[in-house]
Amino acid sequence: KLAAISIQTYVRALRAFFNWLYKENYTMENRLGKLRPPKAPTKVTDVLTPQEIARILASLNPNTSSGARDYAILVLLLDSGLRCSELTGAELKDINLEGGYLKVMGKGGKERVVPFGASAQKALLRYLLHFRPEPFNFTVNNLFLSLDGKPLSQNTVKMIFRRIAERSGVKRLHPHLCRHTFATNYLINGGDVFSLQQILGHTTLEMVRRYVTLASARRISVLNGFRT
User: Fold this and answer.
1) What is the rounded distance in angstroms from the CA atom of residue 171 to the CA atom of residue 108?
2) How high is the pLDDT of residue 5?
3) pLDDT, tens digit, for every residue of 165-209?
4) What angle do CA 51, 52, 53 make, to 5 degrees?
5) DSSP code string of 60-123
6) Which residues neighbour 191 within 8 Å (Cβ) at sequence distance 6 or greater?
């Protein structure tokens, strides 16, 4: 039941391990030297349109505790490209509202600084000052909390997104789609691939190149729209 991209990763790891066994004289030959990973289908990365984003945000009521929190979560993800795990793991001490950045712990235990803009600053400030509940106990310092003051889990965030998707009519909405949308819009608005790689926390440029292709296609689509 593994995806082709996962099988590719496992095959590469096995090949590297058997190559090490051969070089260290544990085996007489590199037994997996000729093993090739399967081809994985190239999927087109999807993004939210400006109209869909407007519908999603309009479906939330920022004057309620849950609405202000969910609004801040959505705007932050769209403005920073955070992973869901990075969002739920963020704590109050990690955020600098005045400076417009958040320190996050990414994959592989690598910490990085992620910037966000004025829209996210405003939404976060509103949530923190007026709607963030009292923590469940003194050990809870997470940025985003449930209504009873407990840290949000990744499953809870996904459930929140499913509820918003149903309410807004944008059925394909999910947390990682916000990351794709941020990356594409970042490039369309003049950002460079190397800074995007740092913001997203990618170790290679492979995924960033997909965003370059998508951003180029979006630019062409917009230009064709103007011509018609």
Assistant:
1) 32
2) 74
3) 999 999 999 999 999 999 999 999 989 999 999 999 988 787 788
4) 90
5) S-TTSHHHHHHHHHHHHHHHH---HHHHHH-BGGGEETTTTEEEEE-GGG-EEEEE--HHHHHH
6) none
Task: Find the range with the poorest average confidence among 17-26, 111-120, 197-206.
Answer: 197-206
Give yes or no for a contact between 53 and 119, defined as CB atoms under 8 angstroms apart: no
Which of helix, strand or coil describes residue 156?
helix
The least confident of 20-29, 73-82, 103-112, 128-137 is 103-112
Rounded Cα distance, 50 and 192, in Å: 21
Q: Which residues are catalytic?
A: 83, 107, 176, 179, 202, 211
Q: How many angstroms separate the CA atoms of 81 and 186, rounded?
A: 10
Cβ neighbours of 47 (radius 10 Å): 21
111-115: strand order across its sheet: 95-96, 101-105, 111-115
Strands (E), 127-211: none
Residue type for position 10? Y
- CA atoms of 36 and 180, how far apart (whole Å): 30
